[in-house]
Each structure stands twice: as structure tokens, then as C-alpha cells.
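Input C-alpha cells:
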């Protein structure tokens, strides 16, 4: 089955994002959307005057491009839309590609295509991940379903550097291509996945690798608990707790972690599930909201939970920093959304 992306946009959103920076220049528009959950990594837009309804049939429809087959959430930066997509779908040339479109018109600008060599990835899951944009350089970072991790020139699509994460680090893509998302932090770009490599990294673990974003040189590698039950696609998010920058993410081992983005050192962990967590954390102030749809650590007879963590602790904070826990909430796919004092979550049950 082919999934066709209809890139629908209300007038307020794309009209502001399109043409926000000159070609070849870093983005300076705070309304750009360089992360799949937005500039604040929480699904919230600060844009004003947005329309309240739209439809594929034409209501408030600026443009439509039915040639892009994907499940990838696009980002917007420098007047362009970037996303991952299937390449030559339903043919013997099928692969994966990073696509750049004009944000104002939907017209193709460039594409960077490469091979998909894992036969256990269903066609509908090619283009699983989301690209990340670097507002300082204007470059784009992507991780494909086969572990091709690359930095691309945002204006031309030229590959600046590339790593085969499966060959170099033993990254594993199971369950049909679960793929994580890159994260840009200052001069680093950070990627993760369950990896089984060599030497001290021979035992499988959900690991993070930080690269110098300009030349692709590895800077640090960090591991969570060994022998996780699952791969994961919980996208890491950046925040600040106790004056310290942190990465927060759900791991393949079923715990939530906060790491130092500069070093990879673990600040705290919270044990939530017996299997992997796939939702992306929602951070609001010093609170982390997350959910899952697997067996609970607190009671393995109960599936699913929605929970809140006080993120100011250190070490294992499962008992000491749990604000609240609601079990039997099957919040295992969509990330929560906080509006005012109300938390919204989608139950998979």
C-alpha cells in the first residue's frame, strides 16, 4: 500500500515560514519549524491568526503534492519543506530519499536518494524517521531505515558527510524499520538506536552517538541499560533543568533518561516499562510527561501508563521524583500535549 503525503498548510503557517531567509544563509526566523515537534519540541506553535479548519478538498489549501509517499513529519526552514520519503515506490528501484520542496508552492527543489538494502522493512515504513534542521548552518540531518546517517546542504541537497551506522556502529532496525530522529545541539548532531558493535559495545544497548555537525567526526558514545527488549523511535528533546542542558528520551529498555548533551553522561533515569518506550517526551518547566502501552514496572499485570516526572533529580528517580502515575492508559504512540493546565493524550486502546 502506498501512503501519499498531502502537505496541507493553513495560510498563516506556511506564509510566514516561506521565504524567511535568503538562500545559503542560516535561519533567523523564530517561526521556522526545524524539529518535527516544532522549535520548542513540544508540538506548540506561537504563530497567531491561524485558520481553524482545512481539508484536502480545498478549504484553506495552499498547495498539494501527491507525488511524495511518506509517513515522515516534515520540517520547515529557510522557506523550504524537508522530509524523508520513499523513492521510486512500487518498483524494482525503490529506495529512500530526503526531499526538499518550496514551502510556498510545493514545487520540488532537490532530492537526495539512496538504496534500501534491508528486506525486512515494509515499503510503507520507508521514510519512518524525520529530518532535523540546523538553524545555524542551514544544513539538514537524516537517518534512513537502513542506518544511513548523513548531513546535507539545505540549499543543494549535496551530501556533506555520511556514516553507515549499521556497518560502523552495529545499529539495529527491527520490527519493520523503527528509526530514530537526529537532534542538533550547538556544534553536535546526536543520533541513537539499539546498537551491537565490538569490544565494550558488543552487548546490545540503546546507545547515543554524538558527531561534530560540520565534519561528522564522532565525539562521544553513551549506553543505556544493556540487552533492551525493543528498538525505539522516541525522539530525544532538549531542555534545561537546574541550569543544566539535558537530552530527555524514552529508551528501548523501558526507562526514561536525561543525559548531558555535551558528554553523554546520565543525569537521571526513571523506570517505566518492561519494554521499549516509543513516545517522544513532553517537557514543561521541570516536569516530563510521557506514556507507553507496554507492561508497567510498577505492576507488570497492567498494560500502559501516562506519567509525570519531576526532572530536577539525579540518579534513579523512579521512587523519589514521580509526580503521578496513571496506569491502564495506553499512551504508546502519540506524545502528550499541554495547553494551559490541561494535558491531552491519545489512548491507543
Amino acid at each position: 500500500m502506498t501512503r501519499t503525503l498531502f502537505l496541507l498548510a493553513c495560510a498563516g503557517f506556511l506564509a510566514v515560514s516561506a521565504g524567511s531567509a535568503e538562500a545559503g544563509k542560516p535561519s533567523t526566523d523564530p517561526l521556522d519549524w526545524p524539529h518535527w515537534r516544532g522549535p520548542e519540541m513540544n508540538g506548540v506553535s506561537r504563530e497567531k491568526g491561524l485558520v481553524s479548519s482545512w481539508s484536502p478538498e480545498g478549504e484553506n489549501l495552499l498547495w498539494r503534492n501527491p507525488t511524495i509517499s511518506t509517513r515522515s513529519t516534515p520540517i520547515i526552514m529557510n522557506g523550504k519543506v524537508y522530509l524523508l520519503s520513499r523513492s521510486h515506490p512500487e518498483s524494482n528501484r525503490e529506495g529512500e530519499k530526503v526531499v526538499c520542496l518550496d514551502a510556498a508552492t510545493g514545487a520540488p527543489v532537490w532530492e537526495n536518494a539512496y538504496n534500501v538494502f534491508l528486506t525486512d522493512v515494509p515499503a510503507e515504513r520507508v521514510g519512518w524517521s524525520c529530518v532535523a534542521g540546523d538553524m545555524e548552518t542551514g544544513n539538514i540531518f537524516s537517518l534512513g531505515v537502513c542506518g544511513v546517517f548523513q548531513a546535507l546542504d539545505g540549499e543543494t541537497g549535496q551530501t556533506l558527510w555520511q556514516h553507515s551506522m549499521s556497518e560502523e556502529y552495529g545499529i539495529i532496525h527491527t520490527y519493520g524499520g523503527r528509526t530514530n530522529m537526529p537532534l542538533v545541539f550547538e556544534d553536535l548532531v546526536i543520533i541513537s538506536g539499539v546498537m551491537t558493535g565490538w569490544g565494550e559495545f558488543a552487548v546490545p544497548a540503546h546507545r547515543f552517538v554524538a558527531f561534530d555537525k560540520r565534519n561528522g567526526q564522532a565525539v562521544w558514545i553513551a549506553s543505556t541499560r544493556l540487552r533492551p527488549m525493543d528498538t525505539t523511535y522516541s525522539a530525544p528533546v532538549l531542555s534545561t533543568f537546574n541550569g543544566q542542558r539535558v537530552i530527555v528520551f524514552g529508551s528501548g529498555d523501558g526507562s526514561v533518561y536525561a543525559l548531558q548533551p555535551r558528554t553523554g553522561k546520565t543525569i537521571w533515569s526513571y523506570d517505566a516499562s518492561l519494554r521499549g518506550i516509543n513516545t517522544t517526551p513532553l517537557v514543561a518547566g521541570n516536569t516530563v510527561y510521557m506514556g507507553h502501552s507496554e507492561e508497567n514496572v510498577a505492576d507488570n499485570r497492567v498494560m500502559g501508563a501516562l506519567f509525570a516526572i519531576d526532572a530536577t533529580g539525579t540518579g534513579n528517580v523512579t521512587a523519589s521524583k514521580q509526580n503521578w502515575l496513571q496506569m491502564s492508559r495506553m499512551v504508546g504512540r502519540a506524545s502528550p500535549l499541554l495547553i494551559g493546565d490541561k494535558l491531552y493524550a491519545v489512548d491507543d486502546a
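Residues 1-24 have pLDDT under 50 and may be disordered. Residues 173 and 261 are 24 Å apart (CA to CA).
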